Amino acid sequence: MKKTKNESPAGNLSPRDTAVQEKLETLKKEYKDLDTLKIRTDQDIANLQKQLDDLEKQAVAEYGTSDLAELEKILEERRQENELRVQEYEQHIQAVKDSLAKIEEPGSGGES
Questions:
Q1: Contact in structure between 62 and 68 (CB atoms under 8 Å)
Q2: Are residues 101 and 81 located together in one domain of the fold?
Q3: DSSP characters over 74-96
Q4: Between 15-63 and 68-104, two packed helices, what is the crossing angle to 10 degrees?
Q5: Whole-model pTM?
Q6: Average pLDDT of each block of 10 consecutive residues along the chain (112 residues)?
Q7: How many domains does the chain have?
Q8: Keyword annotations for this protein (predicted)?
Q9: Whether 54 and 82 share a structural domain
């Protein structure tokens, strides 16, 4: 039986066919690697989406909203409240120090 050009035996490939075969194997490996990366990336996206959903639910439960602009507004309001409380506390501490200083002054009647 006579073989045609396209029917060369498996172990008898031309250099051109060998190069194409090697390139095909390289591309198959790259495709497999990319497919694995895609699967991993899709899983990461799904996990991150679940985390985002959970955090949005938590924000609604704790602050009544998950809207970023509203949350930033709430944060700013709380910062201002905290700054005011710290300032009031500082004034209170200073008033206590002033009272103690008056009591400890000689001749102020605070001595026994």
A1: no
A2: yes
A3: HHHHHHHHHHHHHHHHHHHHHHH
A4: 50
A5: 0.58
A6: 50 89 97 98 99 98 97 98 99 97 76 51
A7: 2
A8: Coiled coil
A9: no
